[in-house]
Amino acid sequence: MTRSPTPESVSMLPEAENVDLAASPRFECGRTVFARVSGSPVERSVRVSLPAAAHPGPGTGGVVRIEPSQPPRQNRRSIEKVTITMKISGNTVLVAGGTSGIGRGLAIRLHEAGNRVIVAGRRRELLDELVAAHPGMDAETFDITDNTSIRRLSETVTAKHPELNVLVAMAGIMHDEKVLDPDSLEVAERTVATNLLGPIRLIHAFAPFLVTRPEAAILTVTSGLAYVPLPASPTYSATKAAVHSYTESLREQLRDTSVQVIEIVPPLTRTRLRGDATDNERAMPLDDFLSETMSLLESEPDARQILVERVKGQRFAVADGTYGQVLAMQSGRTS
Ligand SMILES: NC(=O)c1ccc[n+]([C@@H]2O[C@H](COP(=O)([O-])OP(=O)(O)OC[C@H]3O[C@@H](n4cnc5c(N)ncnc54)[C@H](OP(=O)(O)O)[C@@H]3O)[C@@H](O)[C@H]2O)c1
Questions:
Q1: Total domains in the fold of the chain
Q2: How does DSSP classify residue 221?
Q3: Is 333's C-beta closer than 6 angstroms to any atom of ligand 1?
Q4: 236 has catalytic annotation
Q5: From the CA of 276, how far away is ligand 1's center (Å)?
Q6: pTM of the entire structure?
Q7: Which residues of 261-280 are buried (b: 16+ CB within 10 A; e: fewer)?
Q8: Does residue 145 surpass a pLDDT of 90?
Q9: What is the C-alpha to C-alpha distance for residues 52 and 37, in angstroms, rounded to an integer?
Q10: What is the mean pLDDT of residues 301-314?
């Protein structure tokens, strides 16, 4: 999850590498993918962007030759970009929005994986339950719609846990809105304050501290709906698209720092985000989502996005030419 430049291993990079596509479960034609390089002195992942023409055939696997874009000896910044390594334990992680659902589940998984975890949210009783059930966890109350509360959280957590190096901006709300219903405006404004302004304020409060840490990460949380909106929840979908865009800019602004920026993109998942959806058959079981997410965090060392299989239909709808179909389906239209 956090960056750890290892320039020595880079010096072993050959001028070009053979990547076994059949052995690389992450290979996807024409996209930026992560491929495990085998047969080299150090097993590691490289990021490759292949044109469709380079692919030996869908599903067939094969071997392609990857030319490094820059010889490693020339530019230290490019060296560090290819040598980011995932660290899934030993971090101090703040899950901001971890009293329930995905945040709570991720906090527990990270705690079990050997991280120091601090959970934050509004509901004190849920925080107390979590800390009581998981000795070693810590908790703070905060409201992501209130900048004073965010600043207080930042001061408290960095004072109590000066080794903090990972921020997960998880808090979010989702409600239906009708543009012709005047009551929906309040819902829309609250959604923007929570889902968009909230993470921006949170990142402003924590980023200056995180850049002082030798290895750090900021994880934002968007949604498959960032890529194809759910018309019943227009502002929710718009805030998630905006957080995706913000995350892309954030990563560029922090590219010369120790802070890795990762976007978690959940699909419809069984939580209580939108009322009681815990038994929605179309939604991904929470445990499955958490297992796949933890496994991706571990296996994709310089991940920009965490994409479980279930979300790829939405994430790549434009590239796949299925955007209209997916939007129609999410609108409840048949054509
Ligand atoms: N479940 C899905 O299908 C799905 C799909 C895509 C993306 N996501 C995203 O995943 C994230 C977690 O959602 P979830 O599904 O786990 O729903 P959830 O169980 O309702 O969790 C939402 C979390 O956000 C916190 N939160 C909400 N408003 C807050 C506020 N004003 N201040 C501080 N914390 C606040 C809640 O804590 P308190 O209420 O205690 O404050 C809770 O811990 C959200 O960003 C959501 O958009 C979920």
A1: 2
A2: E
A3: no
A4: yes
A5: 13
A6: 0.80
A7: bbbbbbbbbbbebbeebeee
A8: yes
A9: 20
A10: 94
